[in-house]
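Two records follow; treat each independently.
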Amino acid sequence: MPLSLFDFLCRAADSSALAVTVLLLLAVILVNGWTDAPNAIASAVVSGALPFRRAAWLAAACNLLGSLWAAAAGGAVSQAIFTIADFGRSTSTALAALCAAMAAIVCWAVLAWRFGIPTSESHALVAGLSGAAAALPGGLSNLGIGPWLRVTVGLVLSVVLGAALGRTISGRMEKSQFSSSRLAGGQVCAAGAMAFLHGAQDGQKFMGVFLLGAALAQGRQDWETFPRPLWLALLCGCVMALGTALGGKRIVASLGRAAPLTPKSGLAADLGGGLCLLLCTLLGLPVSTTHVKTAAILGAGRGGDPRPVLAMILAWLLTFPACALLGFAAARLFLILL
């Protein structure tokens, strides 16, 4: 039976934990659009192809379209998030842990935005969910081995392939002859494609969490028979688009300092990052748009300031343990307060 918006709202009204989880998840999606999506337009802005505000509106529209396309095309990435951990069959404790995970992710995302560091809400989502689930009876045995393996493969593949494609395409672009107008037009199209794929990737992840909350409210966690409505993709896409429209100018500036881009290297970074993100999405691998695009920019750019790069690497290394610990601690606290 399809899950209608009215049914979902009724379930949220009946469960305060689900209602709070939904509000926190909407905040996570908004912050994701604010902090993750700017990576899709960074090279176009840094190289001068688009002013930041116009690029942000382009990314917002393409984010929404990407989220809708992903919902219509299937939900392999959503499934990985839905099954990343077993929250048990106790509705109250499961929803409390899920609520704690969302609170941990919001805290981490706001800290990252405050310091202008392009961390990954995608990896924060995986870590926060896993940490919260580990706080429940069963501990680490609650974590899904298969989904975690897909996350690990996606993490390694996205960084290595993104950097390799950025460097390879940049080398070929430098030898080619294009007019400035063609390069600028190519960058606008490539930035739109990157934002579209960001919506396809991250829209699926957030749909997975919404569906997980609705399933846990019924005391179940079966992906195969649980309905996946189109209205949910529209909701995720709209909130993400709103966050993108608000902009994340600090993060674009950080990436610009890490690897100064010419129009050619900027286009190469967009093409390399887009190809990598498309491949991972088609394979159903949950990956970070931040990591993919940053790797492609570093591969395509030359001679930047190493300090932003080191700060990014440190933030990436901290995301998994920090969000897992935050999720675990918040879940323990929420369970005590039940």
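The next record belongs to a different protein.
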Amino acid sequence: MTPQKITTAPLPYLLYTPKPAAKLPLILFLHGSGERGDDLDHVGDHGLSEILANLPEAALVVAPQCPANARWTDHLHALETILDAVIAEHPADKSRVYLTGLSLGGQGAWFLAARAPQRFAALVPVCGRSNPGAADRLKNLPTWTFHGADDNIVPLNESTKMVSALEAVGGTVKLTMYPGTGHNSWTRAYSEPELYMWLFAQSQTG
């Protein structure tokens, strides 16, 4: 699937659009730190190809690019603006908007979801620094997080402490931990068929 390159938004992004359909689920994908900058061709260097290869049904996929030397947490409003534009201009199913990200993007996913939990039907952060103080805001958002047990970039406890915080407030959350895996847990996570069966079953309308 060849993406459109959108460069007129607050952040540039890639947009993957399948053949027209009545209503399509939407995935917002946030890349890691190595893909930051001003070259959209790098947005798909990690994780995105696995997502595109494993989609169980047609979906809109939005993959913005974070500026160099910045974090997604600096651009949460811009991400919401992009979502609004895509939903307004394409046949997106607003009840099936899914948020995921890896590493720096995993952190961005935790924080964007906490800022606007009502926007999303499910959350999939992969090896990202977490936000336990926001657990109460996220307790009604189905969440599946992934992490490598031997991650020495973002330690496993970033995910385990977030899962514990969510469980403490009655959240719906699960953690998949890969023994013997370092920071790159995203290749395995985004290749899990069960992930997509679960993800695409989530809907804000039940």
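Discussion point: The chain is about 30% helix and 25% strand. How would you locate this feature using only the token line?
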